[in-house]
Amino acid sequence: MDRRKFVSALGLGLGAAALTACGQDNKDSAKDAAQAGAAAEGAGKSPAKTMEWKLVTAWPKNYPGLGTGANRFAERVTAMSGGRLKVKVYGAGELVPAMGVFDAVRDGSAEMGHSASYYWKGKHPATPFFTAVPFGLTAQEINSWVNFGGGQELWDELYGEFGIKPLPCGNSGTQMGGWFRKEVNSLEDIKGLKIRAPGLAGEIMQRIGATPVQMPGGEVFTSMQTGALDAADWVGPYNDLAFGLHKVADYYYYPGWAEPGAMLEMMINKDKWDALPDDLKAIVKSAAEAENQHIYDEFTAHNAEALKQLVDEHGTQLRRFPDEVLMKLHETSEQVIQDLVAGNDQARRIYESYKSFRESVVPYVAVAEQSALNVRSMVLDQKQPG
Amino acid sequence: MDRRKFVSALGLGLGAAALTACGQDNKDSAKDAAQAGAAAEGAGKSPAKTMEWKLVTAWPKNYPGLGTGANRFAERVTAMSGGRLKVKVYGAGELVPAMGVFDAVRDGSAEMGHSASYYWKGKHPATPFFTAVPFGLTAQEINSWVNFGGGQELWDELYGEFGIKPLPCGNSGTQMGGWFRKEVNSLEDIKGLKIRAPGLAGEIMQRIGATPVQMPGGEVFTSMQTGALDAADWVGPYNDLAFGLHKVADYYYYPGWAEPGAMLEMMINKDKWDALPDDLKAIVKSAAEAENQHIYDEFTAHNAEALKQLVDEHGTQLRRFPDEVLMKLHETSEQVIQDLVAGNDQARRIYESYKSFRESVVPYVAVAEQSALNVRSMVLDQKQPG
């Protein structure tokens, strides 16, 4: 299994997935485990008294914000079901590699998977709408679209074709725009820049003249140090500080235009889901929804602390991208998204629903939270961010 | 039971609580019901196979966003427990009046209550910190404080003294600043204004020269029509449109400086909570956390639609409060909050924790979501809200 190939074929965001210690192909052991699980469940249609489900994840075990969230989800289900449905978490590479999570859930070798929908763009072009697209919905907006704007129904339809039931399960919040070794003062400064920019962001960066480089997370630090990379987009302060990127770049850019709020997903094998009794279905659903919030809370609190540390203790320089760069990134994003959904009716329908929700919510958020935040900056005499 | 006295003594926000059809004092019937419940549960320490719990609410049954959320919470618990813990929802006035919810949960005549902590300012001055305070935390920020900033522990301690276990369970998001019959162009225009402004907002409005009027929700519409009121703060577009306030006032002000994100609460009688088996405890906890998000999603999606309708179909004029008014409101808010916690060590400790979290999170949110929203306004050529 060529991990580099995976990464470059799919294009990753949320940095962490690329951190994975991939190991060799564990398909055989996955199959063994699946068979053992099936045997334990018995052959009948009604579920056995006690089930143990495997939850494979696209992140290393216990990875802050992502792996910790998967652990809490598993604890919730196990506790709420009084142990009737035990969930065991596997870090990326333990049972299947990070990029094998979708297929493992699809073929039932794992009952559940915790990952991000945009990893599966190679399976279907519409998957990024269920994580984040450039200049798209924020965390709260995507939650509202999924739960009250028709998003869940479209997601069920899309993933249903792969035999998977999806649920929202976590959010990184607005990410940062990445680490740069030199200041970016104009569009010209982007030209030729070797940048690790995942997924759609990489495609957009390429179209505006940068040279996106796909590489596993483990190589990013050294590449920044040697100059093989000029810039790198990772996740946000919480994960970036731990990863040490402030040691190899001075400038930390915002906003995370490419990921205004990256929603994570809990995937459940649909046959297994359909066979669950109603109480366990309700338990899995509420556990995912509760954890959807809790993961975002963990990111928010720890991002705040980490950012303070970066600025106060490590001298990290915060910079906002210049207007002309942001305008060009937006214009190009629209083209890339159009190209993404072109020629695929289902992708276009999902895009139209997403777009129409964005059109509805943007003017409301402007007079609600956005205005409240800007007014708070004013009264606190804080420089209002652009 | 004098409802007006209640309302003016406590000071209400979230408009809806004041809508309540209060009815007469239902304490006797509440007691009867409690006794019947206790009998059904049996006298032993271990819970009976099936329990039915009463959930009293500070809102009318099925009230959009608030009552609907209570209904879903009850359905979640009932479904997840496979009917072992059935939760029955009572609208305000059905079993106890809106403002009797805290005492009903405290004395165990209802096992659970859905309300907002700032209604109980008369019980303890620190309760508003667990809903919203002027220029305070947004919805996501208060969730993060509660779950990862020490807020839950402080809330448990505070409510524990009243024999209540509290959990977050819903959020209105940033509210609006209220309906005004005339434009507000300066601080001078606020002077003498008869305004229905609940809770801390009323106190602040009074200090800057307005005349806050406390009145039941049912009288607001007529009072605005006759000129007995010049302005009224209700909730947000979703509830305000249904309430018809656009018919009696032209100007809809933002931002909701007094409630940047009003968190709702699920209260559980602590003896009943402590006696729950672990699986049911886990179920109640995840149900509240899942609904915490879901209610906010319902508000976001419907506020967006309602605002569009108000502006496009009813000619509502959106106005931002002038800078000098907002600066004065903030300055006065700080004094009112200082006075609120003065002389109460526990209140001061809670305030210090809240304030310290705000200081940590504000600079992070500025470069994350706030910047992303402002940049989105720029690239979409949308007038950036102040």
TrEMBL record, chains A, B:
Keywords for the protein's UniProt record, in alphabetical order: Signal
Membrane-spanning intervals of the chain: none
Gene3D superfamilies the UniProt entry points to: Bacterial extracellular solute-binding protein, family 7, Periplasmic binding protein-like II
Tagged with keyword Signal: yes
Signal peptide interval: 1-23
PROSITE patterns recorded: PROKAR_LIPOPROTEIN (PS51257)
InterPro entries documented for this protein: DctP_fam, SBP_TakP-like, TRAP_DctP_sf
Superkingdom as given in the UniProt entry: Bacteria
Pfam short name (any one): DctP
Cited NCBIfam families: TRAP_S1
Protein name: TRAP-type transports system extracellular solute binding protein
Species of provenance: Alloalcanivorax profundimaris
